[in-house]
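Hi F.,

I've been meaning to write this up properly since the lab meeting, where we talked about keeping a consistent format for the predictions we share between groups. The idea is simple: the sequence comes first, exactly as it goes in, then the structure tokens exactly as they come out, then a line or two of notes. No screenshots and no reformatting. I'm using this chain as the first example so we have something concrete to point to.
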Amino acid sequence: YSMSDFLTLFKYDFKLQFPFKGKKEKRDFVGGFSSFLITALIVAVFVYLFATIANNYVLVEINKVKDPQSRALELMNVFYVAIIAIMSLTGVEQMRKSLTEKKNKTIFLRLPVEPQQIFISKIAVLLLMNYVLAFVLVGATNTIFYIALKPDMMYWIYTVGIWLVFPFVPLLISSILIIP
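Output, unedited:
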């Protein structure tokens, strides 16, 4: 396998997944900025609601015992499962579109490129997308719990570890679900 072939395919697939306009075309600054603002607003509402739920949930007493660390861990695990489910479902759709896309498929098949390289470049783009999504979702989730619990520095090492491993789980689940 040639690394330059892989990078060329990766760049092409990346441009298909994230269609940025070229320099010669007029950029839609207002549309891009409004999309950014809407996304930021949705994230802010999610963070506010999640923080409210988290603050109330960690104060729950079970058998007249307050254990905010255990309650927070329970809630964090529930949100991690939800994040994996969301990322898996979106991953199935992205993978289906990416692998069955007819656009330029006949051109790729005639190029001196192995089918495995095409597949790996598509999976690499999906993995990159999962890393971006995991950064936002895990970062927001763990920041909220950091504010609520004020743990030590190991918490951030744990967060980075989760962020590094997290994108592979939905990708594996998506890969299994998309097999006919």
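Notes:
The mean pLDDT is 77.
Residues 115-149 form the longest helix (35 residues).

If this format works for you, I'll send the rest the same way.

G.
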